[in-house]
Amino acid sequence: MEKVSIIVPVYNAENYISHCIETLIQQTYTNIEIIIINDGSTDESYNICKQYEEMDNRIKLINIKNSGVSIARNIGIESSTGNYLTFVDSDDWIELNMIEFAINKIKEDNADIVIWSYFKSFKDQELKLPLVTKTNAKFTNDKSILIYKSIDSMYGQNKDIQTVSAGTTWCKLYKKKLIVENNIKFNPILIRAQDTVFSIKAFTLAKKIMYYNENLYHYRITDTSTSSGTRFISDTLTPFNALLDEFATFKNCVNDKVEFTKVFNIRVTKVLLWHLEHNYFHPKYKGNIMKRKREILNLINLDFYELALKNVVYSELPKKERAMVKFFKRKRILTFYIIYKLHGIVVKLKTKKLIRK
Description:
Layout: E1 4-10, H1 17-25, E2 32-39, H2 45-55, E3 59-64, H3 69-79, E4 84-87, E5 93-94, H4 98-108, E6 113-121, E7 126-129, E8 137-139, H5 144-151, E9 172-175, H6 176-181, H7 194-205, E10 209-220, H8 223-226, H9 237-249, H10 257-280, H11 289-300, H12 303-311, H13 319-329, H14 333-356
Parallel strand pairs: 1-2, 1-4, 2-3, 6-10
Antiparallel strand pairs: 4-9, 5-10, 6-7, 6-9, 8-10
Helix pairs in contact: 5-7, 9-10, 10-12, 13-14
């Protein structure tokens, strides 16, 4: 039996980490190592993980100062001794046959990567969602759909259904050799979508990728996960423009450059909204309303954002991004600011109802 390394970065997950670990140690495929990287948690996460490490010799607990999920995952890769790698987030959990399913498929298919689907899990409700498509698929030379679905999570689907990017690190089993020999790492500069860049790099270098629409991973929706995009970042230009630079390089990895540009412009528009969420529309932003307006106008005059606002396919955007494009094209920043704040209140109330049902 070949060994599978399961990498779990942990930061302040005391309410969920036990459930996560229980589903790992109870896997039907037993030749695993569980590498837990405690990323400077300030709650009881480390102590909980330590107890499990003492109970199960397949668990390796690494304690580091808070450095971010990219560095934590890179340490996990470097510390792994398995033939295959997979990633699980500390507030999620997995089906007990997930590893067995994945290892059997990757060996049967002689694939470099196997991908599967997931559940979007609220407290009393689960949505069964495909990660890529509703049917199984094989990818060898042309990885375009994987790249498009990674850059734009809602590519080719109903825009009213919020799904995750196909580039999320979970729901995948990688041959470790593919990752290590090509020096694929998570970029610590990137604050969001670092997993997407990692995955696309792996996709482009893999000779064969198999996708199975089997729902085996539970993506837990909590107050924390639904508000993860709202922490204040004073400098959003550095990480978000670095992300767009990374995405732009993948244009050379697809056959249809026009389609890539369409998908890329959609992503740029969504990143523009991230600037607002993390910075200019954030409650911790320091400055009056006119300063917000000036800085946003400067932002949308930068090449990436100016071109996206001009050329993005409006009908392909979710409702919030459509509204932003509509008002930003007319430089009506303050009007959109009011609409954005009202929308946020409505969404927060709806999400709380789903979580607390």
